């Protein structure tokens, strides 16, 4: 009963004070506004803080104008005026009404960094109560970074009416940080430390390390313990992140290399133009996207669904064309094939350069591939995730094609014993052409994926060709599983070396490792077992 | 024994080629320096380093032909040896700049001052002496080739696998030399050279001398290569190329033979690079690019691999074509080069020189056969006549 009465009285008081604020509004803050034009920077900072504390609805707009340098005041001090946006006349700051007789010695109110900081803090304070969720979140994050004990009351007020979980969590963290700075009770501080530690990210680590210095003795063990546990979890997340980045790089390598594993591994053809097939795939994506933009803009988000088959077919046909016109004359002469396909790669590169120009082409990410989401301390971007899914999908599809389909059976037969296969009625030239087309088509699909994360330029393929060869040679020729393991291993190894050695040195180390590895196992990780000592 | 090897019988055409190269070594500098401008026979000053560049490329192609044409090792990393030789020479030239650089530091090259380095890295010591630098021109590429070949040939990495890892080698070096921390000038490489052995590198006389030196080096390399190829070792080398296992089973240490020729070839490439740098005036990591090494292969292939003169002709021809093409239609050079790769492998697998040689050989054979047939017919006719003649008296009786 007593409690209800108390609540009622408090509510009544609040109501009355609110009403009073409303009535007071404009005229009450005028002296505060005018103080902005008087005195040096320290006084102005005080004036900004006083304005912010007044809680008037106009304050945010006034401060915004101040930070944009639109407020003018007489040099000797006095009323503050707002420069009208259009004709250079001056209007009243609060009412917006034109002012006829302005003093002659008006000057813009100058800002320095201290004042700017004060305005920013004051604005973020004000937006803590804003109805816009994003604004509240941004404001509370600002507050978390720059925790000022003066804002504690405001923060408490904002917390009381906050409903959104994420904003509330940020606010609570900010409140905890502020509490650590004030002389709150040890229990409150303990709770604050727990709140911060629960965030478990790098910021929390910085805050806690900072708080160590002026924390009371009895809290130090707790802080230390929390710091240690955050560090452990961060280390684990670091490893997870490296693995994730490594998987992502590995899946790109897998996509680029798996077509090569077909042409090189299965057919024994060194296709130096493989990188250019990837490049052609990326340009096909570009063309499909542009066409779709022109013909059916509402379908733009699904352009990749058209680009994947288009790239597969186009590069596959180009591959078959190359096989029929050049490569089939060179079977059994692998070194010559290498040179001829290198020549083809030069021609393809220059053709694309002539048609599309040497500069990068813009390929847009569809909406479902942009953005990111968090898993614990790990930010996962959608495009990387979809590329991993896509490359594994391609891998499985290829595996099924080779093991389960009639074409796959014929292909394996031709690989293992060309003459026997021919005697059994398999048209080996057709199988050769289709196999090469398949490898090229997969390269084209890799190009679709790469267009989402890399620059689409005529040199796109060059950046991947050596890495792809490394993957195939490392994983073992003629074995798709070897390619999978090789690509993922190299990707992850690369990402783990990067923090210690830097990106370039890491790559050099990987190359040296592979060169040495080939000495030990000249046929790669998963070598085909056989009795032939040489081809 | 070595002199005997060097001056023992060479094929006549090799001797002709050597004579021609030496003639060029004498004539081009003379025509540049002595014949006045405007005269038809005057060689303009800008052409001398360009011709010198062609000859450096010819030396590089010859080096590659030794391993590819005669031993079947398709190295896609010979540009690396070339560039290493070039860097060794470039380091000497950098040290010669002394305090005439932009920052006027007597000891440190400009780029090190720029990077705030306070002392010379240890591997730059000694490069102020020409003799030391010249030794390094041979040793650094030679040592890399020896170590690389030691591992590669011992574990019997052959064919395309070897090609791919040589490409990986030059790619790794490319990435490494791009790094500023390596201490080789990073992206910009070494340039702004002033003197070589006290002579201004820009001066006409120095350029003419450098050209002559390049031509003499090429001639010597040709004699050396010819001696190697015509020796017993050279014959076995061809055996390794054509039937490696069989040669091994005959008792030859194939890996040692490969290692020797690979190292010699790398040293020759290093010399080519060292002669290239003062004439071009710059060496940068771009020389390590895998594409450059593959281009060397096409020079050799166009000229004719497995013939010593072919690569020289091929290198000069292709680069001459490149100079003309890139000036006239820069857009189409890559088309032309690509088409050259395809056409050479498809239609001219023996290269220009190889095809001509084969043609001549078949014609010679044909002639020989014709002569033999004619001789046989004559002989048959003669014997028939004599038999007739021996019959005649009987008939008369």
Automatic annotation (TrEMBL), chain A:
Transmembrane spans: 243-270, 302-322, 334-352, 385-402, 469-493, 499-518
Species per Swiss-Prot/TrEMBL record: Rhizobium herbae
Protein name per Swiss-Prot or TrEMBL: Urea ABC transporter permease subunit UrtB
Topology of the protein relative to the lipid bilayer: Multi-pass membrane protein
Gene: urtB
Pfam families hit by this protein: BPD_transp_2
Keyword entries, A-Z: Amino-acid transport, Cell membrane, Membrane, Signal, Transmembrane, Transmembrane helix, Transport
Main location: membrane
Subcellular localization(s) per the UniProt record: Cell membrane
Ligase listed as a keyword: no
InterPro entries in the record: ABC_transp_permease, ABC_UrtB_bac, BCAA_transport_permease
Keyword RNA-binding in record: no
Signal peptide region: 1-25
Family: Belongs to the binding-protein-dependent transport system permease family. LivHM subfamily.
PROSITE patterns per the UniProt record, alphabetical: PROKAR_LIPOPROTEIN
NCBIfam families: urea_trans_UrtB (TIGR03409)
From TrEMBL, chain B:
UniProt-recorded name of the protein: Urea ABC transporter permease subunit UrtC
Source organism (scientific name): Rhizobium herbae
Record has Signal as a keyword: no
Record's subcellular location: Cell membrane
TM helices/strands, residue ranges: 57-90, 102-124, 130-153, 160-178, 208-229, 259-277, 297-320, 332-353
Membrane topology listed for this record: Multi-pass membrane protein
InterPro entries recorded: ABC_transp_permease, ABC_transptr_urea_perm_UrtC, LivM-like
Keywords: Cell membrane, Membrane, Transmembrane, Transmembrane helix
Pfam families linked to this entry: BPD_transp_2
